Amino acid sequence: MSPADVDMVKVSEADLHRFEMALVIACSRRLNTPFKIDFDIVDFPVNEKVVSKMIEPKYFKRRKDDALVVSFDKYWSPFLCNRISVNLPKERWYIPENNFTNLIARKLQTPEQMRFTPDWDGARIFVLGDSVRRHPEGCKEFKILQLDLPYESQFLFKRQTLW
After folding, report:
1. If you average pLDDT over every residue of the chain, what do you get?
2. How many CB atoms are located within 10 Å of the residue 41 CB?
3. 113-146 pLDDT per residue, tens
4. Could you report how far apart the first and last alpha carbons of the chain are, in Å?
5. How many whole angstroms separate alpha carbon 114 and alpha carbon 104?
């Protein structure tokens, strides 16, 4: 897949805010089963004080390049990764369904992405402030989405290290 083939996604302010709220909720609830939240009812500011407690390494794994690591189970439900290897169901912190993760899940279900997971049991992605990346076993890392965020996210950082 060449860089020209990567879709550019303009993320709305509401969708990014709801994704950030979903991450805070996932870290605070630590539920190991998928769940939904009505974001029209639940709304709170995702400010530095709230985020500073959530982005510590003890909450979820990040990579050297500061990408947020998110996995999807076989039912396309997103969860935060607490381990480098396979996350057993009891170790998963599910992220409530939201438009941003739904967009990524739909991209992972395209034929071009499904060829990297023939015995589908989930996928792991790396989310940065400008892109969503994937590194399937036996392949080089590649971009699956280019992101245009409406503001600098408290959770999604620009790529720090190139390897």
Report:
1. 81
2. 6
3. 877 766 667 788 999 999 999 887 778 888 999 9
4. 19
5. 13
Tokens representing residue 2 in the block: 């060449």
In whole angstroms, give the CA distance from residue 13 to residue 11: 7
Q: Which two tokens stand for residue 92?
A: 């998963």
Domain positions in the chain are 3-34+50-148
Structure tokens at 59: 């909450």
Residue-wise DSSP of 13-26: HHHHHHHHHHHHHH
SS3 45: coil
What's residue 52's pLDDT?
64
- Main-chain phi, psi angles of 42, to 5 degrees: -90, 115
Q: How far is CA 64 from the centre of its chain?
A: 16
How far apart, in whole angstroms, are the C-alpha atoms of residue 159 and residue 143? 12
CB 154 within 8 A of CB 116: no
